[in-house]
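Technical appendix A lists one of the benchmark inputs used to test multi-chain prediction within the project. The record comprises two sequence entries:
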Amino acid sequence: MRRWNGWGDEAVALDLPPEGDDFLRQRIGQGTPLPDADLAAVCARVPASRLPADPAVDHLLDHTPETRIRHARGQSLPDWLAMRSGDMGPFPDGVAFPESSDEVTALLAYARRHGVHLIPYGGGTSVVGHINPPAGAQPVLTVALSRMNRLLDLDEESRLATFGAGTPGPLVESQLRARGYTLGHFPQSFELSTLGGWIASRSSGQQSLRYGRIEQLFAGGRLETFAGTLILPTVPASSAGPDVREMILGSEGRFGILTEASVRISQLPEHESFHVVFFPDWDRARAACRQLVQDRVALSMLRLSNARETETQLALAGHPGLIRLLERFLAVRGADQGKCLMTFGITGRRRQCRATLAQARAVCRSHDGVYTGTRLGRKWAEKRFTMPYLREALWQRGYAVDTLETATDWSNVDALLNRIEHNLSRQLSDDGEHTHVFTHLSHVYGQGCSIYTTYVFRVADSYERTLERWRRLKHTTSELIVRHGGTISHQHGVGKDHAPYLPIEKGPLAMAAIQALGRHFDPEALLNPGTLME
Amino acid sequence: MRRWNGWGDEAVALDLPPEGDDFLRQRIGQGTPLPDADLAAVCARVPASRLPADPAVDHLLDHTPETRIRHARGQSLPDWLAMRSGDMGPFPDGVAFPESSDEVTALLAYARRHGVHLIPYGGGTSVVGHINPPAGAQPVLTVALSRMNRLLDLDEESRLATFGAGTPGPLVESQLRARGYTLGHFPQSFELSTLGGWIASRSSGQQSLRYGRIEQLFAGGRLETFAGTLILPTVPASSAGPDVREMILGSEGRFGILTEASVRISQLPEHESFHVVFFPDWDRARAACRQLVQDRVALSMLRLSNARETETQLALAGHPGLIRLLERFLAVRGADQGKCLMTFGITGRRRQCRATLAQARAVCRSHDGVYTGTRLGRKWAEKRFTMPYLREALWQRGYAVDTLETATDWSNVDALLNRIEHNLSRQLSDDGEHTHVFTHLSHVYGQGCSIYTTYVFRVADSYERTLERWRRLKHTTSELIVRHGGTISHQHGVGKDHAPYLPIEKGPLAMAAIQALGRHFDPEALLNPGTLME
């Protein structure tokens, strides 16, 4: 059963090793957990639904309190605090579970007839408030696409697969694997997030270096809108005017409800392995990273932890004896204090993989990287989707954890990274609190890379004050990112939390262009209000 | 000096070898050339300019007849017929040569004050009527960006170069080469076409397999519009809402005038070579082509000629003795009648190139390809930008030549290719005329490829009847392309010639979305009327 107030499946728990506990205590002090609300109590607080009855759609709707609670919030830290405190803010007035594009069309017609807001809902994994209902007088209906989760068509020659937009990551991959294919889109939210959600929020997977971001994978599909049905035909490339796919990518449910999507798939690879290299310091590590991507070494993933993240990962890994051995091995080879951990993936035909590994190792060696083989890489691969479970373990010890991410050009990476870390580190010092901050580059491009920063701080003595701490951290850093050459999001999207910063990044004319599209597709502004644009 | 009525520099002429002459005579009969108009006579027919005088911009304008003639038409076959006949249709009332974004802004203000249409003009190489002035009562000012042709900024770490939008291909590359870099965008029009034109029309270069289409190269820039200045910031990737760059790409001068563009550059490669392989038949050749791209063999270009194009190329190559030797060599190895020529490019670090070549040869071998080394590839590379000159030689023999191109998914390639060739071949048979038709796949993707078809036919006994022949060929084939799963253009854009077919491809809702953007950026519809959207 999925947790109603946190990440993932209730049966799965990931604990901190004792060394991790000590590590955090030394960095930011002992935490004191806040009390969790229970589901029954929250159910009792759900108000009556305001949705007008309508025979055209009533059979699609669920108004039960638990269902409405389970679709009220995503996975941002404010969402987490809301769910844990039980003070959840607005609930949707109901949740619809359509099974076809026709049923989605019927829901749009219903919304227009009665002036109901619609919120398209995929896996509910947003960390920036995409699917949170607005407060206000108009009723809100969340449209959960979870029943539209099947492989609808497979064109093996063109390597195109068409899915219902509500298909979650594991069902995308299992339905393809049965036929010998993979999509290769593996965001950390993979376990729960859906194809439609990836498209609507411009998601990026951990192996985007090989498979591309969702922008490169999304070939076409079907969007039901208030202005009619938009069919995006699949062509491999086109110079026929502005690309309408690119208007839908990142539209975050403001223009319509995606019901089907065709995506570009690949044959299951013959070989896949993940390798770890340690560098003596950040400068050499970053230079190696940049060279690997600018030289087009055909890696499938590449991430680079800074020294603080490297230290944190090793502390939280458990197995202190083995880690000590590793660190001795590395120190002898020049990677001691300040060392940085790089993980890279190699995927594809065996012959190509051999050539790529040789190229990658040569580049790393030329920057004094110490290659350690695939053992740590295998660990990374095993845990790649389980990190969100760690939040639960930290929460129960009285720690809040959140991430911030952006992307910027290589010439700005260090300056922006340092600003972000510095700002987060000192932001709670007026409260006498430390924030533990560490960063990795998670996606690399010839032009630049993403910067993915994690910050851990102690919860305050109340939910309100904890939320206030988060607001300060989030707001000041978001403002800083868009004022200093970063995008407000490389992979999480805009939602409601980032909406205030989007106009700073894009400028008024670009925002007005997006608004013009919004008026075109949704003239009465019924879809997902407050998301993407305030 | 640039030809006023054809392609390229007057000093350059490419002649047909005698064998090419024979080949065409056998296929479609002896041609009878039409008489060319001369420039002085056309100058005498240019009407007075209707542009209102205005001290704010008068110093930027040129109203002389020759300048107006030289900016009146592009390089489509109708353009060619218009220039050759001297019956040129509407001329711009003047041509402006701004040198800065501020001057472009002044021109926009002028256009609004006086109700003047503006046509942004890059290299004038459009083959679909992008820059042709409309007929009508409003004066038309063509804005030539040729003086905005400098490298403005180079960020070596981020591999970003910023150019004036009017920079033509050779000046893009020479300014970068001096610093050790390349953009790697080489459309056939490279000699004359400009960076701004590539962006506005979603161009694709011959080595897009390595460097990407212009969509992947365009990182940001500056667009002057009637609604204000749009600055597109450079970030390597973003999930911050719909991508506004992708609205400008392919906007064909309807939304604003691009004045600066930042593009993603690469280090000059250590190695580059082009290789030719012959396959016994189309099926095996196409299968090899598809496998090379779906297996992600890191080629920099890949094109595949069908049997008729292979035969034509060999006939037009000259050196009949050598060609006979080659054909004997190939026949012994199984590539005889029906053989298909594949050219692939390998570019990059030496070590990577060696690995890639081995991979590519192994794939070709497994499909019975006969590898012939780099000699023919070198020939291709030498002639890669000179093919348009051949049009002049054919014209002087009484032949008209044009191309049609599209892209489609692999599962549809053969069906669409056959339809296109069949339709073109039989279209003039009512006139008792043959059309010589041949095709190559010029750009390949995992999902599909482009189809690039050349057709040669005899000019009729008048310009009007020649144009009518072309119209029949073009219209029926364009209709067929968009009705059968192709895009109306993979690399030439929409312009005016393709505008009637765009709504069939995109559908009414997508067209209305693009129109909504047009109204936003250009509420009085002063920019490039009739292009992109009728």
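Chain B has 20 helices and 18 strands. Residues 171 and 386 of chain B are 17 Å apart (CA to CA). Comparable benchmark entries are summarised in Table A2.
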